[in-house]
Amino acid sequence: MRLIVFRPSDRLRPPLTHRMRFRPLLMMLTLAAASLRAQDPLNPPIPLSPAPPAESPGDAALTLSAAQRAQELGMPSTAVALYRQLLAVSDGWRPPLGSASSWIAHRSGLSLALATALLDDGQPAEAETALKASPGPRGAAWHLRAALAAAELRRTDEAGGELEATRVDELGQEDVPWLLFLKGILAGSAGDSMRSADYLQQAQKAAGTDLSRARFMLAYEEARLRAGPAGDDALEQTRQNAERFEGTATGYDFARTYAVMLAGTGRKSEAVAALQRQLLALPSGERPRADDFHLLLGLIAGGDDAVGRNALTALIEGGGDADRQRVALQVLADASRSGQARAAFRSELGRLASVAPPHPILEDILLFRATWALEDKDYAEADRNARDLLERFPGSPLKAHALAVLTGLAWEQHRYRTAADDATRARAELPPGEARRETGVLIAEAWFRAGDYRSAADAYAAALRSPPENVTPGDLMFQRVEAEIRAGAPSAAEPVLDALARDPGFDAVNRWEAEWNLARALQLDGRTREAFARVNRILASAAKGSVPAPALPPELRARMAWLQTRLSFDVGQPARTLELAGSLGDSLGGLAPALRNEIASMGLLLQAQASLALGRESAALDILKRLRTPDYQHTDAALYSYIVEADHYAQEDRVVQAQDLLTTMADDFPDTPYAPYALYQAALQAERLGQDSNLREANKLIESLLTLVSKYPKTDPRGDLVFYARLKQGDLLRELNQFPQAQQAYEWLLNNFSQHQDVVLAQLALAECHNAQSATDEAHVESARILFEHLLYRVDAPIDVRVEAGFNLGFLLERRENPEQALGVWWGEVVTAFLLDPANAADLGPRGRYWMARTLLEIGKLHENQGRFDEARVAWQLILKTNLPGAALARARLDRFTPHDAKP
């Protein structure tokens, strides 16, 4: 005989609590699609759609902003890594049909940005490779960068040719300094040093910010160092001139030139020694010259060398030329990307930020500190420095960068409302152009992720008026419709979707996804027939040629035809489903083979489901077998056909057939997302048979499931099934009287899934497990009591769970011969709190109502045993008054005595 302390009577059984029932096809398709994602998508996966990019537009905009900021701060190696990351994401995704031009423009823009960063980083050959990989047209910006790369590689004739191919009027303002810089380099190569210097000075003046100007100063100095080796005679003559005019301005110029020539000849150590001698001999009044020598020494020795690092640090700390200090800061930053050098640089920035009086380039230092802290996930430090910059320098040209840092740190911490506010402020500081448009998309996505769908819808509408190149217009249109759906009633989204459908930029895939989400929203709103009517109307208009331009492309028409078929089944018209599924083939012409096969297989599955609904089992089974033939056997529909057939057998009480089919499917297709689910359902079918041998078999199936999903990460939807499988395993072990093993299963869940949405079910099951064991082992009594009390008073637990815990706590107290305490819990903490309180009573579910009825029956029984018949009648009548289950039991007990039986 099984040791179960309390068990519902045959006439009053509790409803199922956590049994996972057969889910519809589309939920399983969602599971399959989600299992392939690296991270949670912005929106739920949608059937019949290609996989989206791994990074959302908002994430991409933040990465792009970080790359641009790194380049501005003189950290080209960081910018290179970020641009390559963005290109890698785009490599793994191809846009839907109709959006190829946007994807090409996006790839071209990234390739140009990467080439620019590589040029900044002194990698002209790599820059050429990036340019050649650009898929877009070779316009003025492309030719300019090709010319810069050729010039750095000393192919001056080729550089000149590319310069001639550069149409200056097509260049953006940000490229003008690069054009002037190129002209300066080419003039220097031609021996016209005065003209070269003039162009390079113009390039610095044309730079938009102090940081940009510092970038061109650095580029100028590096170009001079790369000018090539000097002849021995020229080198000796320059040395002699430096000695002859030592201590004069002319002598200093010759000394500088001599150091540059030594470095160009590869005699770096001699160049360093020459500059060190000059610095030691330099009079204290020659501060500008000292700045120049310190910078040159740092560039020649390198920021990663102790001598170079000390020279650059000395320039930043005591120099008098702010532009040179910014150059030194950029060189040091790029040489301090990791390890001890990084920590030392961050420490030095902190010291410089706190000196008194304030450092001349404090704005730049604060931005560097904020940026580096954000990279290191030091959010408090990033926030402090970005806000310090904004407060102390309200008119700073670096304001947009500081606000971008605040946006990034809020985004990374999932504080999306704050991110939207900061991005809005950043956008106001940006000039018209691509960065401003990208920030508009980021704002929209931040509002969407924050759950403020009304603001998101408005922001997406604004972004659509001037979309950035890196986002397809169809993506923004889809997101606007989705935001409208979530902002209110689905009907509000219908006119928006209809209006957007007239735009040629609304590609077929995004239009399909928007229509699918609208149909789903209508279904959830109890308006499946309206969804069906909408799809019917769209397809009827397409057939008549009256769909708003452009007409439905074949790809969208086929998807819509499948949705029409699906909805016909959902609205309970299986005969219509058969008709529509039979004609699906007419819409598949011209489709890609993969999509054609997928829709055809799903159509066959719907035919099978409709045939089963019409009682045509033989025809349905034939169709299901056809799905498992080589033509379709690898499709989702073919795999799900096993689930559909097993569900049919289960509904017909052909439990063994259902179980055998499910285990066969799991054995044959163990690597699919359906296999764990099939094993779970097979275990439930075994449990239905009820014998101990069946329960042990069910437990083995659960173990197989757990072994199967153990290789998946917790973020994988299949990994999430572990929770429910282990919970079911604990229940099976309890039914087998294996309470210690069941206890271990529940405790494992509490240790490994403490934040799971249904963890309270494991807590309740563990409490009941302790309670069951307390009948023979007093050690379990206190554990059960503490757990029941915790759940009863846990305000975030579902009411049904709290009611069940309260019943069991009272039952435990009654068994411990504390009837009055039991009555106090039952009446005061359960009935009064959850039944007599109208707000809580409205939230009682089937499970809660069952345990409430059990509670009132036990209250009545306890009063009756103590001769308090009036109180007993009140409890039993309350069952009838509130329409709780167990009415027959309550009436039977009321009928056992009449009012005159009551005693005073």
Structure notes:
The protein is an all-alpha fold and 904 residues long. Among the domains are: 230-335, Serine Threonine Protein Phosphatase 5, Tetratricopeptide repeat; 336-413; 759-904, Tetratricopeptide repeat domain (Serine Threonine Protein Phosphatase 5, Tetratricopeptide repeat), CATH 1.25.40. It is built from 45 helices and no strands. The chain starts with 24 loop residues before the first helix and ends in a 10-residue tail after the last helix.
Briefly say what this structure is.
This protein is mainly alpha-helical and 904 residues long. Among the domains are: 230-335, Serine Threonine Protein Phosphatase 5, Tetratricopeptide repeat; 336-413; 759-904, Serine Threonine Protein Phosphatase 5, Tetratricopeptide repeat (Alpha Horseshoe).
Show unreliable segments: 1-11, 13-39, 900-904
What is the number of helices? 45
CATH superfamily of the domain at 759-904: Tetratricopeptide repeat domain
Count every beta strand, where a strand is a DSSP E run of 2 or more residues.
0
Inertia-based shape: elongated
Radius of gyration: 37 Å
Mean pLDDT: 85
CATH topology of the domain at 759-904: Serine Threonine Protein Phosphatase 5, Tetratricopeptide repeat
Main β sheet profile: none
Strand content: under 5%
The CATH top-level class label of the domain at 759-904: Mainly Alpha
Helix content: over 70%
User: Judging by the overall fold, what is the CATH architecture of the domain at 759-904?
Assistant: Alpha Horseshoe
Structural class: mainly alpha
C-alpha termini separation: 43 Å
